[in-house]
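Re-run with default settings, no changes from the original entry. Doing this only to confirm the output is reproducible before filing.
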Amino acid sequence: MDLSRYANVTWPRQRVPRVIHQTYRTYDIPAIWNTSVQSVITMNAGDFKYRRWSHADMDAFVQQHEPHFYRNTFVNYRYDMQRIDSFRYVLMFYLGGIYIDMDNGCHRPLREFVATMEALDPDSPHLALFPAEDTFGVQTDFVAPPSYKHIVTHS
């Protein structure tokens, strides 16, 4: 769907929390991602809070919010990427907002984009935005739900 045709739509009901989440092993990110990360922060300053999650932060968040899953599954994953992917789901379930991989940047602010998405179907409890995927599945390098908890409890 081309959301640009709905440019400048405003809607008073903000359903997606105005926070952008990004993750990396530590708070010091590789220089290769400085430009993309800075574009996300700069383009959205004032409209969105920004939160970077380290692996230690991710671990603590999952342990706090999903202790059974943490003990029985999360810590037993063989690969870090499995923990990172599952953290995204737990994070979006509880907090919502926008998750963007660090190698994705912004060329325009997300304000109008998110407001347009919220206005397209203002009464639907099912609101989430994922990028198009050519293969079978759902891409999670950019995700923008109110919170998965909201979606799951209203399904």
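The CA atoms of residues 62 and 70 lie 6 Å apart. Strands lie at 19-23, 49-53, 98-100, 142-143.
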